[in-house]
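Colleagues,

For the teaching module next term, I've prepared a clean inverse folding example: a structure given as tokens, and then the sequence designed for it. I'd like students to try predicting residues themselves before seeing the answer, so please don't circulate the second half yet.
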């Protein structure tokens, strides 16, 4: 178990900041193209990697230099260029959002770990107090013990202690 006196993430986010973040995320979402894919489309559509992007750029260059007029009328170079530009724009945004998501995931994981580690220590202390006959501790231990067994699938604190060693 970690050192309970060392709390690496001893903070909360103010309600006004949470509200501002939510508003900004909704604003970002509203500014993005409103397209969604079906589950089948997500599975079947090819992704764009570096090689596919280079190929697409080569096709655009050939259309520009070697006569787009040789292509059928349904091939619209402007649409191809716009799609590639949107891909590149979204790639930049995706990278930035992934950094934010990584930061959120790390902070959430750390906060959860610290909260749960402390809760486990509280549980153990109630158990010890209950076994020692400290008044009022048995009720709390029994309540927490029920939740502990239900949530963890462990039958006793012995399994918890073995896991911590």
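(Answer key — instructors only)
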């Amino acid at each position: 178990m970690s050192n309970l006196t060392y709390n690496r993430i001893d903070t909360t986010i103010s309600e006004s900041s949470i509200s501002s973040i939510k508003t900004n995320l909704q604003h970002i979402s509203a500014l993005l193209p409103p397209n969604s894919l079906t589950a089948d489309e997500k599975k079947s559509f090819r992704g764009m990697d570096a090689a596919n992007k280079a190929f697409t750029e080569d096709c655009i260059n050939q259309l520009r230099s070697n006569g787009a007029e040789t292509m059928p009328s349904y091939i619209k170079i402007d649409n191809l260029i716009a799609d590639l530009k949107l891909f590149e724009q979204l790639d930049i945004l995706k990278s930035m959002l992934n950094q934010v998501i990584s930061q959120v995931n790390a902070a959430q994981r750390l906060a959860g770990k610290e909260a749960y580690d402390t809760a486990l220590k509280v549980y153990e202390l109630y158990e010890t107090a209950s076994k020692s006959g400290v008044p009022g501790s048995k009720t709390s231990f029994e309540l927490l013990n029920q939740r502990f067994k239900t949530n963890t699938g462990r039958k006793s604190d012995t399994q918890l202690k073995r896991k911590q060693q």
